[in-house]
Structure formats: structure tokens, C-alpha cells
Amino acid sequence: MCRSLRYCVSHCLYAAMTSLEEANREVNMHSSVRYLGYLARMNLLAAICMGLYVRWEKTADALILIIFILGLFVLGIASILYYYFSMEAASLSLSNLWFGFLLGLLCFLDNNSFKNDVKEEATKYLLLSSIIIRILYALVQRICGCVHQRPILLTTVEVLELVGFAIASTTMLVEKSMSIILLIVALAMLIIDLRMKSFLAIPNLVIFGVLASLLFFPSLHIPTNPFPLGYFFSCLIADPLLDVYFSGLSVTERWKPYLYRGRICRRFSVIFVGLIELIFFILSALKLGDLDLWYFVIPGFSIFGIFWIICHIIFLITLWGFHTKLNDCHKIYYTHRAENNSLDRVMASKGMRHFCLISEQLVFFSLLATAVLGTVCWQKSNGIFMSVFLIVLSLESMAHGLFHELGSCLGGTCVGYAVVIPTNFCSPDGQPTLLPPEHVQELNLRSTGMLNAIQRFFVYHMIETYGCDYSTSGLSFDTLHSKLKSFLELRTSDGPRHDTYILYYSGHSHSSGEWALAGKY
């Protein structure tokens, strides 16, 4: 008895210690990964401080010194909020906004006169090491499973750093500042495009990188420091780019912040897209003022401009129609939420798959028209045009990705028809024999229960019900033939045939497999 008790106690202690060791190992792993993130931030802080110091030292600009001291003051406030008041969200928000602003200053302050200075070189190496550590941190986080994937378009950190960088651009002239702010908006759209894992997100990323680095910033004729600019771009792109591979969210989970948005917000999003498209077309038309290549620009704009207008009218109508159908799906979803019906199932039952498959092709032509018109009307000295062009590409890429993903993952429409014919006869020896009354009553009850079960099956799986026929006296061949013919010719409200037709029959059948419609052999 004592030996058994000791055996149980020892095994319980062993199991508890094993669980504790695994928990400690997991905590240690998560802590190590977090320290890697802290190291990247400390490197960035050191790089920003050294960069601002060398600029103040070489230019003797009092404003830089004020910003530097103010930055340290803000960092101190953020630390106090974090450690003494446990206001983690406010602390991180303040620090991220300020980091974005200071990175913007490092990008746009002229460093040509001291680019070979030792401190400036050290700043570059610190920024490079920060980029490497930051990307490594994001990669290790995902490999170790330390990231909790959640449906979101832009994180708070990304929004604040983008806003801070945009604020820093206001130190320049209005036109150049507006170009950079619009480029920041395009970068935000690109981040969303990557996070949604759109089909054309990676090509869109390549186009953004090439245009921004080779054409956009040279067109502004301003001194830019590529190292803080590279850090800013790399750190914002790293997480969504890695999530293209590591994210395990489904299509509707990724698009949840948009698909589950209110009806008015989604309608306004379509209007916003239309306004952006109109602005892009107006900016493209400014190319007509270039008289040097009038023989190429005027015919090209006339032909491809008309093609662009036609494609984008269809594009906007398609988006509006999609949201109309989505509103109908929302009504059904919220009505039947207690029945555990997901929005995916509701959209499938309403024929969204067929709509998305067609819309995908239409949006692709719109995207192609935008690329062609942008190429024909390219303005190498107009940064606003380039930024709006990148915004439009990202928006249309997201629309194409949404329709492509929904068309691939949603189920098709389905319609069902059930025929239940209870019988009053049996034929054990080949001759029909009338069943006893109690057996007949039992069979009728079973048939009624079966009919109710198939009706519940249709309702639960949101299968459109063509009919559930129940007849104790049997059905004639002509009656059933006409019903089956009408059933198999049934179409959806949009016009195409259903993807699946379910026919259920419960009743006697002949030895050859033919239905015994009269209820007997």
C-alpha cells in the first residue's frame, strides 16, 4: 500500500515538474525573443541620437538641438508611463509616434557636407544593424510561435510611425510634403495588401520599391538619407511580408475588419475608391500639356483613357454590387446567428462565389488599364502623380485579391429536393402483403421524422429548398418527372445554374433500383 502511494506521489511530482520545466522553457524562449526586440529598439535609439547629434554639431542649428532634447524628454515621459503608471499602450504609442518623426528628420535633413564623418558612418552601421536585428526578431517570433495572429488592417505601431514620418515631411515645401504624405498613404495601402495576402501583393511590393527608390525621391530634388529611409520601409514591411507565409488566418478572418464593417462605412469606402480613381485620371490628363511628345501622348491618352474609363465604371459598379450582396448576407447572418451559421456559409448560399469569380476578371482588366494609362501618361517630375498611381495600384490589387480569395474558398450554391413515400406493403416472397396497422403507423411516424430531419438538414446547411414531398398514396410518374425536370433546371436569382443539386428519396424501390412510386412492388 505504501509502495503504491509512493509510486503515485512520485509520478504526480514528476508530471508537475515536467510541466513546470516546459512552461519555464517557453517563458525563457519568449523572453529571449523579446530581448531581441529590445536590442533592435536600443540600436535604433542610439542611431537616432547619434544622427541628430552629428547634424547639430556640423550645422550648429539650434532647432535640431531643441528637437534632440525634446526627444529625450518624450522618451523619459514614455518610460515613466510604462514603468510607474503601467500605461503600456500610451507609452508605446508616444514612443512610436516620436520614432517615426525622428526617422523622418534623419531622412530629409541634408548630410552631404558630413556624409564621411565618423559619427555619421557609425549612425549608418547602427541603422543597418537595427534593420537586421528587427527582421531577425520578426522571423524568430514567427518560427517560435510567439505571434498571435489576429485580423487587422494596420497595427497601432504602424499607424503611429507612418503618421510621425508624415509629420516630419511637413518641414519641406507644400508640394513635396504632399507628395511624401501621399507616398506614406500608398505604403499603408501596400502593408494592408500584404497582410491580406492578395494575389498581386508581392508584384505590387516590387513595383513600389522600384518606383519609390529610383523615380519618386529623385523627382523631388531633395537630399534623402537612404539608411533611415531603408530602416523605416524595411521595418514596416517585415511583419506583413513574413505573414504572407506564416499567417494561418483564413480568407474571411483576414478580411474580417472590412467584411464585418458597417454598411455605411463600406459604402463610403467605395466612394473613397472612386474619388481616388478620379484624381488619378485627372492627374494623368495633365500629361496632355506635354507638347514634346504630343504625337504619342494625345492618341495614347484618347485610346487608353476611354478604355480606362469603361473598365473603372464597371469596376465601381462591381464593388457597389458586391457590397449590396454582402449587405443581404449580413442581414441573414445576424438573423440566424443563433444557429451558428458563419458568414462564409451565408455568402456561399447567396451565390457570392460566382459573383467573385466574374468580378476577379473585371478587376484584373481595371488593374491592367491603370498600369497602361499610368505608363502612357508617366510624369517623371510629378511626385504626386507617382504617389497616387501607387495608391490606385494597391487599392485595385486588394480588390482583385479579395475577389480571387473569396472565389477560391467559398462554396457554391446548392438546392435540394426531397421525396418521402411511406409504404403500407411488404413483399418477402415477391407478392405484396398488407402490413399490420401498428407497423403502418410506425412507418408513418418514421417517415414523418425523416422528412423533418431532411428539412432541418436543408435549413442548417443553408440549402435552398425546392420542395419536400410527402405522399402516403404514392406519386405518379408524370408528376414526379415534371417536378424533377423543373428542379434540375432551377437557376439562382442571378441567372446561372446552381453548383450542386441534392435529390433525396425515401421509399420502396424495385430490385433493378427503380423507384416504386406507388409505394408497392
From TrEMBL:
What topology does it adopt in the membrane?
Answer: Multi-pass membrane protein
Q: Where is it chiefly localized? A: nucleus
- Ribosomal protein in keyword set: no
Q: Does the keyword Nucleus apply?
A: yes
Q: Where in the cell is it found?
A: Nucleus membrane
**Which terms in the GO cellular component ontology are assigned?**
nuclear membrane
Top-rank taxon: Eukaryota
Q: Which residues form a coiled coil?
A: none
- Annotated membrane-spanning segments are 35-56, 62-85, 92-111, 176-192, 199-217, 229-247, 268-288, 294-322, 355-378
| Sorted UniProt keywords | Glycoprotein, Membrane, Nucleus, Transmembrane, Transmembrane helix
Family according to the record: Belongs to the TMEM168 family.
What is the protein named? Transmembrane protein 168
What organism does the UniProt record list as the source? Crotalus adamanteus (Eastern diamondback rattlesnake)
